[in-house]
Amino acid sequence: MNLCALRFRIICRSRISQCLVGSQQIRTFSNTLKRKGENVDIKEIFNDWKAKVSQDVDTSVDTITATPLQLFAISLRRKYIIDDLLATQVPPKGTQIPPNYHLAYFPPKAYENELESDGTESRYAPPPPFSRRMWAGGELSFSANNPLRVGQQVSMSTKCREVKVKPSPRGENLFLWLDKDISNELGWSMRETRCIVHRIHYDHSYVIQTEKFPGCLVHGPLTLTLLLDLMRDNLPNKTSFIKSFTHRAVSPLFVDEEFKVCGKRSESDDPISNSYELWAENKHGGVAMKATAILDNI
């Protein structure tokens, strides 16, 4: 079973504000300040910072209100928010939040002067020389019986699960895994991966002159949301739900360039396999993001 490919073009018209959340988060930080002849004790910097963030647990609260959900769906030009609920209708209390649409909640709360140079929060940012951050991927897991719904009071707990330093041709890369668990009044609801919006997504001068990209980048969680929408629009039956969704960013997508999202049932000898492979392709046919969805029945 192949899922129909959908084409998109992200148009950059104005600055995008931060409006994201998550759960298990993988970030990569590159050592871009190291120069030949510098005596930088990477190990000492890494160990000191790791000890600090490993003990840091952040808890934030929010209310699942109708308007952010509705605007999210309209921004993605969805005809329906979920099932037969039109995007032009205000979602009533009890409406289930589609996978990854919780990105409209738990916005970061920081003053502008507290942000890093790339526009992100500093709470989990490592010290120099790990100054250039990228999004590597992650995984989402959902409760079968306790989805997030409009009207609920929800909380999100963020903690560092793992930190690693790996070598690369451009210097050491620091990988940071953040577990973000979201709960409502009934208990645990989901665990998800997210990436905070930063300047490569909205500041054209910054992305060209500082980050040396040819144009603004499409935000990774937006691509992820489109892949999830493709999957939920093609669920085999009414009782199917997305149990988990593992994804990995492979290469960037750029604003004003067409791309498409695709999917198919995973190749398996098991005729009732509930695994699907999804991916996003750039305008040249290259893969920008890979994902695997595991389905289950309620």
Provide key terms for this protein:
36% strand, 13 strands, 298 residues, Thiol Ester Dehydrase, Chain A
Overview of the structural elements:
The two termini are 21 Å apart. Strands 1, 2, 3, 6, 7, 8, 9, 10, 11, 12 and 13 form an 11-stranded antiparallel sheet that branches. The chain has helices at residues 42-54, 66-75, 204-209, 220-232, and strands spanning 2-9, 24-31, 57-63, 80-82, 85-86, 130-142, 153-166, 173-184, 187-191, 240-249, 258-265, 275-281, 287-297. The chain has 298 residues and is mainly beta. 14% of the residues lie in helices and 36% in strands. The protein has 2 domains: 1-16 and 217-298, Thiol Ester Dehydrase, Chain A (Roll), CATH 3.10.129.10; 19-196, Thiol Ester Dehydrase, Chain A (Roll). It is globular and about 55 Å long. The longest helix is centred in the first third of the chain and has 13 residues, at 42-54. GO terms for molecular function: (3R)-hydroxyacyl-[acyl-carrier-protein] dehydratase activity.
